[in-house]
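BUG-220 | component: ligand-complex export | severity: low

The export step for S-adenosylmethionine jobs runs without errors, but we want the raw record kept on the ticket for reference. Input record follows.
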Amino acid sequence: MIAQSPADPPAQDDVHTTVAAYYAAKLARHGAIPLGVDWSCEATQRLRFAKLLQVCAFDRPFSLNDFGCGYGALAVFLAERYPDTAIDYLGIDMVPSMIERARRRHRGKPLIRFALGRSIPRQADYAVASGVMNVKLHQPLPIWEGFVRSVLDDMHRTSRIGFAVNFLASPHPDAPPNQLYCPPPETWVRYCEQILGCSVAVLADYGMREYTLLVRRHPD
Ligand SMILES: C[S@@+](CC[C@H](N)C(=O)[O-])C[C@H]1O[C@@H](n2cnc3c(N)ncnc32)[C@H](O)[C@@H]1O
């Protein structure tokens, strides 16, 4: 059982520094393409977006926070897939070079904005986070789970209707041992239901070693 408690700030700082360096190096090596945010290809990056966005109702305008937005690929996907829905989009990432790339790519679009940071700076209807909690590197499990809890708490606090996150179900056979975080779905379903008081739908079986949680606030 993972109880709600404040994350240990020094331990969280260490997690952020280590993970930020990892993603900054990926972007520097590959550029603003899926490999630059550690995804293998665009098709699977977009499949993840499609699953996460099932939390949103597209028949009316809404606001969306994209936590861990990388170079802003979700904003491109939204414009292509849902051109008729006005979406007030804010992407947040802690890696300065990611935010620079994202801003450059979406310059001149008033409804698409980006913020540098480690937490979500505004309230919105929904939040999504794709791939943010997968790569734990050598962080001890309790420290990493403190980080996951702080991300879920932040998304819950800042989302008026609901939020969606994805997790790895099992590591890729070629991945270095113990560097990926692959929790069973029950761990965070229980947390979102029992501690955050939300309802949760689990999307699995979409052809990847991953699953997506769609987390909705109960109506007041
Ligand atoms: C696997 S990449 C995915 C990027 C993007 N969501 C996508 O699917 O194209 C994860 C991103 O989350 C960012 N990230 C990880 N932890 C974060 C944190 N605590 N605060 C802000 N950004 C974070 C990383 O810098 C990286 O850009």
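Assignee comment: Attached the raw record above. The pocket of S-adenosylmethionine is lined by residues 16, 19-20, 23, 37-38, 45, 68-70, 73, 92-95, 98, 118, 130-132 (CB under 6 Å).
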